């Protein structure tokens, strides 16, 4: 009899503990697309067209669903309650979600990563905040003009190449230091090619063993080796006062474990270029392919620069403030080509729309699809720069539900720098050249989830000095 009472008591206590400490009781877990191969899960079906797969799963399973991929559970949230949780819940962790990818990408060990991440984040956020950008804008303008000179009086190029050949070396010189051996005329091609291999393979290389990614691994090693010299040089020439320090020198000053300076250099290089270059491409492609948008932009440029000699133009921050319409075009291009997925790790179970998402899942939000929500973005697939009239950009706020830079506390610390550099590049290029696309505006490739979408086909531009 005593035994039976003890069992009953244990059950009652158990139920009470569950009620008090596990309030998710009674909720179901999300429906899960498992696929049929152990560990790989749905990877093969998913990999054919990840962006479309996500939308099809949403239509089939509803606003919260899990896709099992390469040993991990990705739980997608596709409606407001989920976005809210993604941006604000304390039961989610950004660092734990990205640590392994960072380790694969640039070989930064786990302990070093955790020691440094939030310090580096604060440093980057400060150095690249709107109040510090004036320290970079003058030299960035000179750098852009220098590389734009190389285009000559006229020509035809792939628009992505044109943008990359200007933006890549100019931004490296600004963030890492002008006298880098890597951006000299002799070395830049090799540097750019290795970066491109590294960027192209990044998404898969952060998930798969190195043996599947030979070309990528070779470029990673080349970049890490080269950045050992960059780090050494930056340390030696590091000024004691802040006035002429580069962002990379600030990074080295902040770092615990100086021996990883080169690894963090490659990481900063990737973060600063991988999204900004395609966004600059899309912005120009959207503008030049739309006659009325292009006309508006030229009118705006005329108002600010009038008859000023185009070769002597210095694009100031005040000029950029007056060139609102171009800024709207940049933000609209970012909205339409936003990253396919951003993730945070669930550290304590959370409930979203009556579904309990277990600890260990990777909570995933797709900015690409969020930006196609009719409630926030009517005619979501249209390039409509005017919709940005509603955003309070003077106060540095975006439109509601615009999450291309992430949401909540971990938003991209480089976002204001990114917008400024793209703004400046578009102004300088369109002031100097008349441009015409020789191919129709390409669609976005459905193959990428990480970062800004890539074009699916060619997009050649013909350019000619303005009379
Ligand atoms: C239009 C261009 C850009 C886009 C769309 C973009 C987007 C993003 C996104 C989505 C994240 C992750 C946020 C999250 O998961 O919640 C991120 C993180 C980051 N971005 Fe950007 N980014 C851009 C340009 C830049 C630039 C130019 C820099 C540096 C100069 C930069 C530096 C970083 C860094 C350091 C992080 C990691 C932040 C952390 O540790 O939490 N980004 N970016």
From TrEMBL:
Gene3D superfamilies: Cytochrome P450. GO terms for molecular function: heme binding; iron ion binding; oxysterol 7-alpha-hydroxylase activity; sterol 14-demethylase activity. GO terms for cellular component: endoplasmic reticulum membrane. Pathway: Steroid biosynthesis; zymosterol biosynthesis; zymosterol from lanosterol: step 1/6; Lipid metabolism; bile acid biosynthesis. Its cofactor is heme. Its EC number is 1.14.14.154. Belongs to the cytochrome P450 family. This is Lanosterol 14-alpha demethylase. It comes from Pogona vitticeps (central bearded dragon). The lineage of its organism: Eukaryota, Metazoa, Chordata, Craniata, Vertebrata. The gene is CYP39A1.
